[in-house]
Amino acid sequence: MSAALEASYIPELEQEVLGALLVSGDVKYLPVSLEPGHFIEPLHREIFASMKQAAIQYRSVRLDLVRNVLASAGDMDAYKKTLGISVPEYLARLASGTARGVGGLKDSIPAMLHQWGRFSVGREAERLFLAAADPGTSPTELIRTAAQSFDEVSSTLRSGRQRKTLFSMGEASETAIAAVADAMKRGGGLTGTTWGLSDVNRATGGMQPGEMIILGARPSMGKTAVSLSIAIQGAMAGVGSGFISLEMGARSLAMRALTDIAFNDHGSIAYSDLLTGRVSEADFERVVLAQRKLDTLPLLIEDASGLSMLDIRTKYERMAENAERAGTPLRVLVVDYLQLIAASSRYQGNRTAEITEISAGLRNLAREYGIAVLALSQLSRQVESREDKRPMLSDLRDSGSIEQDADTVIFLFREAYYLGKTKGKTPDEEADRVERLAECQNKLEFIIAKQRMGATKTVDLFIDVASSAVRNAARV
Predict the structure, then answer these.
(1) Is the pTM of this model over 0.85?
(2) DSSP-assigned letters across all residues of 399-468
(3) 17 φ, ψ (degrees, to nearest 5)
(4) 432 inside domain
(5) Chain segment 301-353, per-residue pLDDT in tens
(6) 220 with 290, same domain?
(7) Which of 141-145, 317-321, 471-475 has the lowest mean pLDDT?
(8) How far apart are CA 307 and CA 316, in angstroms?
(9) CATH code, domain carrying 93
(10) CA 12 and chain centroid, separation
(11) Structurally, how many domains does the chain consist of?
(12) Is 166 a member of any domain?
């Protein structure tokens, strides 16, 4: 350890945590997420390890019990030489010297972990510096191992956050009543963030804070169009929205957004025409007007491929800071799409475990920050082998944990897509196909396949595929 890093060590941070736990003597205050390795001072590691052992053996962390476990663990004379006092006396001083007590653990534990995080990052930086000096070292391997190390530190710091998790039923019901009262004020039955689609709002109550929503579909069903339209409608309602695109570039997304916004006032302007420049002067002027509206919306787009969950957290936090400064806190984050998130090296090669880790990461992101996370997901090809190609929960690709982790699962289905790819075997069948195609050309089925707080049902929506516009079915 470098002298500069060692000089920055504050032993009182660790002493405060240990002292408060010894004073309490109660195992319920022993943090599950805290490990001996989170203490910098070797003796403090030994003391905390003895606390955990005492908790297992005696269901208590009383000072006398911890002292006995510690004494049986090894020779304490070496520590006496360093301390200048006996280890039992040091334990007594820890207990008597706590400034905040048990009530202060919610602040003292994060402060201690913050120090551990600094030291861990510093040690990793020192290792990187020494390894990089070797001409034979692979930079790719250096980056991979450093990213894994930093990811583990970041994960520990997140899990160490002390947020309120235990509520009396009275406290929980108070928050529920407040949500209902807020929904009554806003009208429309909304207890969460608007989807921008009143029919869907009625079926779900909106996108709820702290929940992960999966939006799944086969290619060409309109996943990106629907999710972008939802983000735009939320932003139009004054809700800060973020869109992380791992597949489509920001310019292409912006073009889809322009045709979506222009649709309300000027009708359909094909997204593909914008890409190729085949637009009339009149339509170009309409798109310019749409851009002026788009420029005022609290909607941020992150265009980057190959992001890991750690990267997504970092991108989200930067988005959230920008949104907070602008006065429109981020309430919705769209991730397009789940299977393109880079997995950590922890489960490399095991796709099921990789997707499980990513799914849990998105769920935790929603809960930790109290936002609605809308994650897009590809579906299995087995959909195409069925006569009825409407998706089912079993079609979620790669891992059953996606269904388990999600609070809500939505599927998209467009019958017109499949009708457009077939031909009738007889003149009568072909006539029926053409007639049915005309009827459902703009129909999008919004299938709520799972909803923890509500019923499953299908909501019919209007979609103009050319302009990426998604609206209530009443427009049909």
Answers:
(1) no
(2) -THHHHH-SEEEEEE-HHHHHTT---SSHHHHHHHHHHHHHHTTEEEEEEEEETTS--EEEEEEEEGGGT
(3) -65, -50
(4) yes
(5) 888 888 888 788 888 888 888 888 888 889 999 998 888 888 776 666 777 88
(6) yes
(7) 471-475
(8) 12
(9) 1.10.860.10
(10) 34
(11) 2
(12) no
